[in-house]
Amino acid sequence: MKTFEELGVAPEIRKAIEEMGYENPMPVQEEVIPYLLGNGNDVVALAQTGTGKTAAFGLPLIQKIDVGNRVPQALILCPTRELCLQIAGDLNDYSKYITDLKIIPVYGGSSIESQIKSLKKGVHIIVATPGRLIDLIERKVAKLETIRDVVMDEADEMLNMGFTDSINAILEKVPEDRNTLMFSATMSPEISRIAKTYLRDAKEITIGTKNEGTKNVHHVAYIVHAKDKYLALKRVVDFYPMIYGIIFCRTRLETQEIADKLIQDGYNADSLHGELSQAQRDLVMQKFRQRHLQLLVATDVAARGLDVNDLTHVINYGLPDDVESYTHRSGRTGRAGKTGISIAIMNLREKGKMKQIERILNKKFSVETLPTGQAICEQQLIKLVDDIEKVKVDEEEIEAFLPGIYRKLEWLSKEDLIKRVVSMEFNRFLDYYKNAPEIDQPSSNEKGKDKKEKKKGERPERRERSRKAEKGYTRLFINLGKTDGFFPNQVIELINRNLKKERIEVGRIDLMQNFSFFEVIESQASKVVRALNKTTYNGRKVVVEVASENEGKSDKGGKKRVKETKKTKSRREEPEYEIARKSKRKDDWKQFFEHENDFAEPDFGEEAGWAKKKKKRK
Q1: pTM of the entire structure?
Q2: Cα 104–107–109 angle (5° rounding)?
């Protein structure tokens, strides 16, 4: 193993990082630092978050700066405000003993005027989110003609968030003879395309295996009925009393609901999602980083670029649609040589996603049964006893109160006193799990069992379902799906490209084989429909319209009836319905009628029966 001195790191930088506790370089630093210290060396580095990436690109960038020339010489692009601030803070720490080096973070959600003033005074390194940097370029304040090194950190996440056009525009402003470094957790086709376009004979450095999750993460799956997901979550959290982790949910609505339930049930939790203001997000993250919060319930988008040390667990409240999202989620634990646990709480319908993730990551989930009430109580009791052993006692402060305490408790024996102290803290768990029924683990043959029950006339209770958008949003249909190579980042990119002057808030995205749905703020829906209907995608005319709501009632037998109102009368003529009906793909048909959240099992109602009859007639 080489030392930082052998890698060519300057003495003043070594002094700063040694004070920070850096002893030996990590693998990514050994690979990247010597290469970046040279000129004309482009790099595509595949490495998970938490592997020492910031120091890998930060140390050589700082060392190459000509402090006497106060113009922008290095540019670092990253997806979020939180990551932008973190990188700038780390670079300032590394350059502690370099006089007059100026580093500025620029990001949205903060005063652009103060950032303009800082840029006008002169800076050496700019750390930026793409959107805010484009604003500053258009105002002719951020000038990139003198940039010699460009770093794109978490490039795959920036592309997933729809920043492709912004990145292209920024890179066109930077001199061609620059050094360019792309850091990514996964090698997607879009990453490859940008690398081929903007990098010259780039060296590919892979720490671990391509698209592989962090090696120090143990992957666990609990398979439960959809209705039992929240109860299962509580059991998992209770079984790990020292848990410090993130719970990932699919939508803002689900995120807020789960966070509210946890808080109501006495857990130290809070939510992080797109509907929070920047000030609210900052406050939540500050509490979480300082460990005043034990659990952060978040959407994938809100948690992009978050870098929090020492997370013990990541909990997937259902698996994400794509493997890359799972890689990013699980990579937030098990960092810097420490071990972590990535837990998936899922229902039977998600087993296919689990197999897909296992194939691509080349790792197996450990499918386990949920902890019993007794096992949970044992874990909580051990934690309580540990806390009592470790509590600090200030002899001087407490001494004056002890005589009165002794008199009050002298009638209790040592055994009675211990029992009372333990019970005072422990009764909540004893009371909850004393009579709590065990959660059934569904078996793969339950569908056949349900069919037999139906033949006997026993119909399981079904939930009402709708395809309504979240409050304040409008749900839109688009005639592009997975078969068109149309995924979430393409949805956002298509919107950004055709509504450049508008900042469109995109909500839930539901991708299907031949068509998709996405949600936007109600007030912006008409603009989005008008703009996108004038476009093409890969030579195909784009069709976007407001998706109808599926309003249904369940009769006594459990069958769904569709109200023949003006709103739903022509439902069978909806374009998305027609595409699903005409498609021979079973998945399209199922997805069209499937409820949008994971709590309910699929119910195709009369519409599915109607389709079968129609097929027979043909």
Answers
A1: 0.55
A2: 135
